[in-house]
Amino acid sequence: MTTTTSSSVAAAQADVKHNAERLKADGSALIDDLKGSAEEFGEAQKGEFADRVGGIADTLRDTSKKLRKQEEGTVAGLTDTAADQLDRVSATLRNKDLSTMFSEASDLARSHPAIFLGGAVALGFLAGRFLRASGEQDHDSDAEPATPGV
After folding, report:
1. Among 25, 38, 48, 68, which residue carries the largest CB count within 10 Å?
2. Rounded to an integer, what is the distance from CA 115 to the centroid of its chain?
């Protein structure tokens, strides 16, 4: 009976080891699939964001032209500078993959934490203002036009 028990234990251990290896392989495959899906999603979102940033740069250039017509050259120059910077950001987003950008951001955060945090705060502030302005425009377009004299 001892031989039968020890062979049963050995068989059970072999089954457990086999199932553990299979589970590990399945888990690895699932993680690889999830990473691939996340990268595809991230790349698609990155492209959309790059388009939006480029659109904001175009809007700033239009604003700059109007400011120049109103003889506001200094403000127009600042607006052009901001548009140029946004074009660079847009180009970077289009030309670099996500892993490279994350790596560079991580390096910046380690080497210059104050600059990184300041940039993150500024970006969050700008994103909030942009989203708030977008929401107000959507709300305004849904409203019925006012009837004069009523």
Report:
1. 68
2. 19
